Amino acid sequence: MGHKVGNTEGNSGEIREPAIVVSDVHLGSESCNYKQFCDFLVWIRSLDGRKETIKCEGKELVITHPEKFILLGDILELWDPKDGDRDNVVKQSIRPFSLLSDLRCEKIYVIGNHDDAIHRYDEKIDYETLHNDTTLNVCNRHYPEEKTGIKNIKIGERSYFFIHGHQYDKGQKILATVSRLTGQRWNPLNWFQILFNIPFTKNNWIINSLVFLALVFGGWYFWAVALKPNFGYTLIWAALTGFFALSSIPGIITKTQRKFYDAKKPKDKTAEQIIEDEYYQEQKDTVVADVIVFGHTHFASSYVGKKKLFINSGCWVGEDSIIDDKQRYTNTFVYIDENGAYILKWSKGKIACIESFPVSKG
User: What is the pLDDT of residue 11?
Assistant: First the structure.
């Protein structure tokens, strides 16, 4: 499958060695393929000083150690961690990030919507130097960032732009609109998660919920009948009710949001569906690149647009499945070198090729 290279305008950040892109690992979630992801990172580390050759659509693909490792959003599950407890995110992150820090390449972390809470570290972790003299950089929404003045990353004859992809999601537009109007990020799910993960709230949310309900439904009786209307008693009742509301409602929402989310969540969409259903709006696209690599929809796939090639990097949650008569793979990543881009799958120490996008030679 080929895609003709267009003429890319603007400044480019050029790299000589390959890049590997992963997205939607959702560390800390119920369905994260944690062990497989760790094994995958160990395999990448093993490429330091050696090559691995696989068959990809009738041709040989030689995989070497990357120069850049791009984490394309939703690496951490801060919206809906297992049991609603962000401690599970910490537990599942220690080994992967230890393995990542050992990789002898630059690490780029692009913020997604499920790990949006780490945006506060965007400026603090600005090409942080790690123990092996490699760097880690947190990017807000996309890579490269606007503040660098670089519009795309040049690998071989193609230019690439990396974005998590929730910007193409219609359901995320409300959050984006409110955030733009208020001048700060608005994320109610994250707000409730922060309140729930306070130790007192997390450990006592059930008891606090019962007390809150007792205050709400019993308060009117004591106020209107037993105590008569009284400002002092009313103030005490309101303060107690407010306290137990803040320490119980986040727990109720956190423990029930998964059922609501599963009921409302649209089916995983391919790159083609994202473009054809007008989740992506070409007339508003200001990206200057031949290829846009994104994630978010958990469906490793591609779409050749009028001016750009779109590649979805897939996910590391759940199992392979059929959705709308289309094969959806998990544990996928994108490998990019000077000869093109490839969607690959990790499976028990083996690499399988799903799609290839070689550079047109003509």
Answer: 67
Q: Predicted confidence band at 339 (pLDDT cuts at 50, 70, 90)?
A: very high
* pTM reported for the whole predicted model: 0.87
Contacts of 203 (CB under 8 A, 6+ apart): none
- What's the confidence (pLDDT) of residue 8? 43
User: Using H for helix, E for strand and C for coil, what is the string for 42-84?
Assistant: HHHHHCCCCCEEEEECCEEEEECCCCEEEEECCCECCCCCHHH
Closest CA to 357 of 313, 298, 296: 313
Instruction: Give domain limits for the chain.
Output: 12-183+268-358, 191-261
Identify the three-state secondary structure at position 158: strand
Residue where the block lists tokens 């309140």: 195
- Residue 281 tokens read as 């709006």
Position 227: which residue type?
L
pLDDT tens per residue, range 33-44: 999 999 999 999
CA neighbours within 13 Å on the CB side: how many for 245? Answer: 9
**pLDDT value for 5:** 39
Query: What's the CATH code, domain 12-183+268-358?
Result: 3.60.21.10
| Helix (H) or strand (E) segment spanning residue 252 | helix 249-264
| Residues in a beta bridge with 108 | 70, 137
* Per-state percent for the chain, helix, strand, coil, to nearest 5: 35, 25, 35
Phi, then psi, of 46 in degrees rounded to 5: -70, -15
222 token code pair: 């004591």
Contact yes or no for 15/153 (Cβ under 8 A): yes
The strand pair at 301-304 and 135-139 is best described as unpaired
Strand 19-22 versus strand 332-337 pairing type? antiparallel
